[in-house]
Design goal:
With 289 residues, the protein is an alpha+beta fold. The chain has one domain: Glutamine Phosphoribosylpyrophosphate, subunit 1, domain 1. Strands 4-3-6-1-14-11-15 form a 7-stranded antiparallel beta sheet, with helices on one face. Strands 7, 8, 9, 10, 16, 17 and 18 form a 7-stranded mixed beta sheet that branches. A 4-stranded antiparallel beta sheet has the order 5-2-13-12. A hairpin with a 5-residue loop joins strand 16 and strand 17. The protein starts with a strand and ends with a helix. It is an enzyme of class 3 (hydrolase). This is Glutamine amidotransferase. It comes from Pseudarthrobacter defluvii.
């Protein structure tokens, strides 16, 4: 199963290190199980997006590890790919960038021919450079956000709402980031997605550096030792009891001041739910732990 990680550090860029090759629980070691690509998206001081990604497993690519050692940004988005749709190419590797936003997805859905027709109808087919269902979903979100005057939450709502009604869906877990805002969605209940609102000032023990690790991704930031932050991950990344799973259909927005807004705009189940048995063997394997 693909892994997602998102971090909002507030209005001030902070430095975070992503260990990809030599940490005991590093992204690279576990990418031997998710071997189809890895990427990290950040934003520069001026707000421009920067994506470091490779279509190789992270453990095979030392250059990728060097690039990921020290990254500074207000928001971070990391992804390890286990491909369900599309070849192992750079164009198919997450995160994707459109309209200055970054996007990563964990899940699968069918009906790409119908989605392609919808994208053509909306005039955004040219945004899709690769073969994945993920990039197509992002293009639909981008199109709907444009039609909503740049309202990303509305764009996500319209795009996911259309897919949930029109296409067979297994999972649509996703994270969208800009330099100032982050949106995360879990839909439906197929795959987990967790949130942690981290406030070191409320912890009884002395503040420690952010050290978030799972069986897939490991991120560390000394600068966040005494500062608030909001994290999203496919699984809890430390023993903090504040981690909670998003509800199925829950859309979370984190603003520049780290204010968290939660809504549940989607039905419990898509109109045409998929199961693992509906996928071909390789796609089904990509959707399991």
């Amino acid at each position: 199963m693909c892994r997602l990680f998102g971090l909002h550090a507030g209005s001030r860029p902070v430095r975070a290190t992503f260990w990809l090759l030599d940490a005991p629980d590093s992204l690279s070691r576990q990418s031997r199980k998710e071997p189809d690509g890895a990427g990290i998206g950040t934003f520069e001081a001026g707000g421009g997006a920067r994506v470091s990604k490779r279509p190789l497993a992270a453990w095979e690519d030392h250059a990728f590890a060097r690039e990921a050692r020290q990254l500074a940004s207000t928001t971070f988005l990391a992804h390890v790919r286990y491909a369900s749709t599309g070849a192992h190419t750079l164009a198919n590797t997450h995160p994707f960038e459109q309209d200055g936003r970054l996007f990563a997805h964990n899940g699968a859905f069918h009906g790409l021919d119908r989605l392609d027709a919808r994208l053509a109808e909306l005039g955004v087919a040219g945004l899709v450079q690769g073969q994945t269902d993920s990039e197509r979903l992002f293009a639909l979100i981008t199109a709907e956000s444009r039609l909503a005057g740049g309202d990303v939450a509305e764009g996500i709502g319209r795009a996911v709402g259309w897919v949930a009604v029109e296409l067979p869906v297994l999972a649509l877990n996703l994270i969208v980031t800009t330099a100032t805002d982050l949106w995360a969605l879990r839909y439906p209940a197929t795959h987990p997605l967790f949130i942690l609102e981290r406030d070191p000032s409320a912890e009884p023990a002395p503040a420690a550096p952010l050290d978030a690790r799972s069986h897939r991704i490991h991120s560390r930031s000394t600068e966040l030792s005494g500062a608030r932050s909001v994290l999203f991950a496919t699984e809890p990344m430390d023993h903090n009891p504040g981690w909670r799973p998003l509800e199925p259909g829950e859309l979370v927005h984190v603003g520049p001041d780290l204010a968290v807004t939660c809504t549940v705009p989607f039905p419990d189940q898509p109109a045409h739910p998929l199961t693992l048995a509906d996928l071909d063997p390789s796609a089904a394997a990509s959707q399991t732990s």
